[in-house]
Specification:
505 residues; alpha/beta; Rossmann fold; Nuclear Transport Factor 2, Chain: A; 3 domains; 3-stranded antiparallel beta sheet
Length: 505
Amino acid sequence: MKKPTRSRLVKTPGVYIKEINLPSVVVGVPTAIPAFIGYTRHSSWDGQSWLNQPVKIGSYQDFIAHFGASQPPYFYFNPEHRATSHTVQIANQYFSLLPCADSRYYLADAVKLFFQNGGRQAYIVSVGEFGKASNQLLGLEPNRHIQLSSLMQGLAALKHCPEPSLYLCPDAIALSDNDYAKLVQAMLAQAAELDSAFCVFDVPGGGYDAMPIDDVASRFRPLVGQQHLSYGAAYLPFINTALYGQDDITYRQFQGGNSKGLGEWLNPGVEPKLQVLIDKLPYADKSEQLNYHRALLVLSPIYYRCIELARQWANLQPASGAICGCYTMQDNNYGVWKAPANISLSNVVSLPINITHQQQETLNLDAVSGISINALRIFVGQGVLIWGARTLAGNSEWRYVPVRRTAIYVKQSLQTALKAFVFENNDAHTWISIRAMIDSFLQGMWRQGGLCGAKAEDAYYVQVGLGQTMSAQDILDKRLIVQVGLALTRPAEFLLIKVEQQQAG
């Protein structure tokens, strides 16, 4: 009997697709999707509460739609004994213009810096809304509206959200030292427990504080503890940004929004037009306020100086949001194994503290604690650069950020791929398929430069099977165990990753 021809099998014209079962492959998991934990202007949208709910966004416009835009702090005048670069002279007295600590929030600005520096997607965990301003001036005082318990609830919400691979909490710098220590150590512990995320921290005191840089680092190191240090990295100092322009901060931000007090310090007697304008301010509606603000900039040098001082404070930001954006850009352009260092930060104009080469050497590794801090430095013709890629565990084999993050990436990718074999027999046929699948994945990494070695055998190895990674009892207990060795820093010096799966049956 003749075999039917194709024309006899196909009854009607059209497109015919024959399904072919392809072997399983390892697909790399996302590596740079951060989760921002903190306070927002709104915690609900369209009647739905987002409180302690991880919300995925794809742009800063998405963030504004869900949580509202950022809000500059309120400012108060503080008498000073002498003139400095941060004071204004009113009559015969010098004043500094200090933000109200209780109105200072950082998450929204950090999200904006993230997208400006290469970020693509992020999760937002809102733990509450902005509180009311007070007359508490910003120094080393914490924001009394930012509560450790709320931030811990937001962190706990991420246990059930596996996609974020970076944790950061810009508002943490507004906590007291004791609360900051508890939050940081909890973030490191959760990242280590899940083994799927890496933490990025800002070092408190990295702004205009008079404390020397070595003292800032010495104050920070005891706060992070001694556990799970390779799952986080810290950066110092803060950054001077260009987020707030001259029209973004007006007289409504001074003295708690009390425009009736402007006449006491603007010296209106010098310019008659200024007095007329000041008398109108308390009665101005929102559409008129910006025009009055611009008129004040022209008529009053004191007002102009105050706005500039306020902008300096508002534009002083923790760097973690911008740094996470650089992590994303580096991962997308090269791979998670590429160190996120020697990268210029966008929308950053300067640094409040210039770190010298000698100071950086001390930050890189503390002789007593072994805890490393990464420096941000400014170079002529290059801008502000991330000048370090060390984890907090500066004295261990996990001292480098790309080493820890690559290990997380490989382990999470393998765990996801092995789920395809959960119903397969734990026998030699399955082991051969798994070994071939992982070998193909790691060889791809090696060819892209993610692993060290001139030959593949110098870059990685894969072990799975009876007598290699499993005992007879493991097979009886339906435990599938795979071990991978990766040369992440030097050829043939392998870091071991062990993946275990409970087979169904």
